Structure formats: C-alpha cells, structure tokens
Amino acid sequence: MFISKNLKVLRKRLKKSQEEVAQELNMHRSTYSGYENDVATPNIENLLIFSKYYQISIDDLIQKDLSSLTVNEWERFSNEWKTQAKGSNLRVLTSVVDQQNEEVIELIPEKARAGYVAGFSDPEFVRELPSLHLPFLSKNKKYRAFPITGDSMPPVVSGSFVVGEFVQDWTSIKNGTPCILVSKEEGIVFKFLYSHLDDNQTFLLISSNPNFEPYSVHISEVLEIWKFVSYISSEIPNVRLDEHDLSTTFRNLHQDIFRILNRIDSKA
Fold first, then answer.
1. Which of 67, 140, 158, 165 sees the fewest Cβ atoms within 10 Å?
2. Which fold has domain 105-267?
3. What is the DSSP string of 65-109?
C-alpha cells in the first residue's frame, strides 16, 4: 500500500503544511502526521475524508504510487475523471431483449436492490429480473425501472418505481435534473443532480424534501446514472406521470432547493 507516501505527495502538490491540512480536516496534526509517516493506518472513515479532500479515488490512494508519476503522467492522471465522466470508455451495460428482439425495461425488485450494485453488469443477474414495456417511451433509448424507498423525493412515494433513461455522458446532465444514481457506497438513490465536476469531480445530490441534507458523491464512486423519464406508483391508480408532467411538479419544489443551495454557499 502507498497510503502514507501518497498523502505526502498530494499535500505537497497543494503546497500546504501538515498543520494546515490537519486543521482543514478537523484532525490533530499528530494524527495526520502519523498517517504520512506510516506510523498509523487510516480507517475507512478517514480514507473517505482523504479521498474527498484530495479528489482521488480510494483505490488510487491505496494502490497507485503517485510519487513515481512523471509530469505528463500527472497530467493524464489528473484528467482521468473527464474520460470517466464523458463515457469515452464504453460503459458496461447489460440488457435483455424480448422475442421480437426489442429491448425490454428491466425492473429491479426491492429484494434485488442490494444485489444490483454487484450484479448490474452480470448478464445472469439482469436476465433474471422481471421486465415491462412502456409503449410511450422511445425504442432508441435504454430504460430501467428502480425501486424507491423513503420520503426524500416527494411527490414520488416510497414503494414507487422510477423509470430512468441510461446516461452515457455524465457531463451532459443539466443541473437540477432528477436522476437515479447508482454508486458503490449509497447503492440506488433518486435525487436532483448538480454537477461540480469541474471543481472537485463530484455530484451534489439534493432531495425535494428539504428535511434531507444534500451530500456529494465523487465520480469514482458512481457506477451508473439514469435520467428520470417516468414513475409508477400503486398509490396513484392507473396514473403514470411522464417526464413533462413530473418535471412541472418538481419545478414547484425548486424554490426549496435553491434555499438549500444558498444555505450551503453561506456556510462555505
């Protein structure tokens, strides 16, 4: 592992002292110094803190020897996120077709929710999922239906299924777009996405329920993003809201979201 060596390299690239970094991370200087000097090994919580602070994935922080990189290699390494965000390397997407060779909409049951993070690219896992057809959706795009739990995104209620359109290029997502984001740590979440890719390679995730605090996810943790197109709920019999209808409803909630964003900016 290269944790200690990499922490020192990353700090020096920011031209900061151990004291400065420790203060910004709300750590004792001796604690941070111990990590850099390989006296102690950071736990997973601190690894997440370092990952966000230095804008680097935990895998790279642990396994890549950053001290060996040349100037050109540093440039490529620093811009790897752009390749990932734009989907320049083909994203793995397993799908199922029906007897007419048309793609179906795979539905993730609640009982399969936890397994989706590990099985989303496994043909066997995807093939076993139930499926449905929504004839009003385009045949030229890929869709999937995800289970929603909790009350963080009204008017979508817990127990609903949100149908998303697969997004290859994450930089194309407009701020405030409702999306299903699948990540290594959080699993499946439905939120409004705000891009901070150029600043720190993160997405800010905001709920329509202002009682839920916004939080950020680094793109190294993101597995898939699906843009909202429709949702299905047993609590609204025989009604499926399309993208335009639900977006109109969501726009009425944006005032609360902007208040949350202003509150975040005032604390920064």
1. 140
2. Umud Fragment, subunit A (2.10.109)
3. -GGG--HHHHHHHHTHHHHHHHT-SPPP----B-TTS-B-EEE--
**Distance, C-alpha 88 to centroid of its chain:** 18
Helices (H) and strands (E) in the chain, counts: 12, 10
Integer CA distances (angstroms), 117 to 130, 169, 239, 262, in order: 17, 20, 30, 33
Q: What residues contact 233, with CB distance under 8 A and at least 6 apart? A: 156, 157, 159, 160, 161, 239
Top mean pLDDT of 63-67, 97-101, 217-221 is at 63-67
> How much is the pLDDT for 83?
79
The SS3 assignment for 254 reads helix
**Number of Cβ atoms within 10 Å of the Cβ of 180:** 25
Partners of residue 106 on adjacent β-strands: 131, 144
Tokens of 11: 């700090």
For 90-121, how does the pLDDT look when each residue is reduced to its tens digit (9 = 90+)? 555 777 777 777 788 999 999 999 899 988 88
**With contact defined as beta carbons under 8 Å apart, do 22 and 31 qualify?**
yes
Structure tokens of 94?
A: 């397993």
CA angle (180, 208, 105) in 5-degree steps: 25
pTM here?
A: 0.68
Please answer whether residues 250 and 178 qualify as being in contact, where contact means their C-beta atoms are separated by less than 8 angstroms. yes
DSSP letter, residue 241 = E
Indicate the CATH number of 3-78 among 2.60.40.10, 3.90.600.10, 3.40.50.1970, 1.10.260.40: 1.10.260.40
Report the interhelical angle of 3-13 vs 44-54 (nearest 10°): 30
